[in-house]
Design a protein that fits this description.
It is a single chain. By secondary structure, the chain is an alpha+beta fold. The longest helix is centred in the first third of the chain and has 13 residues. The two termini are 23 Å apart.
Length: 172
C-alpha cells in the first residue's frame, strides 16, 4: 500500500515469512524524501484497515522505518539530543563510552518521541517494545534534512537504519 508524501511516495510492505513491516520512501527523481509524522500515521491506519488482498495478516515483530533522514522530525530529534548529551563527544563524533548503534537506539527509544506512532499502532493491536539501529551516519548540522538548526556544532548523528520492535497486544 502507498500514499503520496509531498513529491515522494511512502509505501508499507509486509513480509509474512519474516513477520516484518517495512516503510519505504521513493522519489521519482531519486531526490531525498521528507515524510512527516501524520503521513506515517495515515499510511499505517490505511494499511491496517485494508480488508481485500493483499491485506495485512498480523503477527508482526518489527516495523522498519528505513533511513531516519527521510523523517526530519526523527532525524532532528536524534541530532539535537546527542548534541546536548554529555555522553556524546561532538569532537570525535562518537559516544563517550557506548557503541554507536546501541547509543543511538537508546536515544530513539523515547516514549515521548514514539508516542504518536505507538498510539497509531495500538489502534491496530500493537505496541512498540524497543528500537534497534544500524549504520549510524555522523556529520554536521548542514547534513541534516530541511531547516536544520545551525547552532548545532561539531559532529552529531543524524541518520541510521531504524527498526521498531513490535508486540501484539493480548486484547486484540
Amino acid at each position: 500500500m502507498s500514499i503520496p508524501a509531498g513529491e515522494c511516495t511512502l509505501s508499507l510492505e509486509a513480509d509474512e515469512e519474516w513477520r516484518t513491516l517495512r516503510l519505504r520512501t521513493h522519489h521519482p527523481r531519486y531526490r531525498p524524501c521528507t515524510v512527516d509524522r501524520q503521513t506515517v500515521l495515515a499510511l499505517l491506519d490505511a494499511a491496517f484497515a485494508k480488508t481485500e488482498p493483499p491485506a495485512l495478516q498480523g503477527g508482526y515483530a518489527s516495523l522498519s522505518l528505513g533511513r531516519l533522514i527521510d523523517y526530519p522530525w526523527l532525524s532532528q530529534y536524534l541530532a539535537e539530543t546527542a548534541y546536548r548529551d554529555p555522553r556524546w563527544n561532538r569532537k570525535t563524533g562518537r559516544p563517550v563510552k557506548a557503541e554507536i548503534n546501541a547509543y543511538t537506539a537508546r536515544l530513539l527509544d523515547n516514549r515521548d518521541l514514539l508516542k504518536p506512532i505507538e498510539t497509531g499502532l495500538a489502534k491496530h493491536g500493537y505496541r512498540i517494545t524497543g528500537v534497534s539501529v544500524e549504520k549510524v551516519l555522523v556529520g554536521h548540522a548542514s547534513d541534516l534534512p530541511g531547516s536544520a538548526p545551525t547552532r548545532l556544532a561539531g559532529r552529531i548523528p543524524f541518520d541510521a537504519q531504524v527498526w521498531l520492535q513490535l508486540r501484539e497486544l493480548s486484547h486484540r
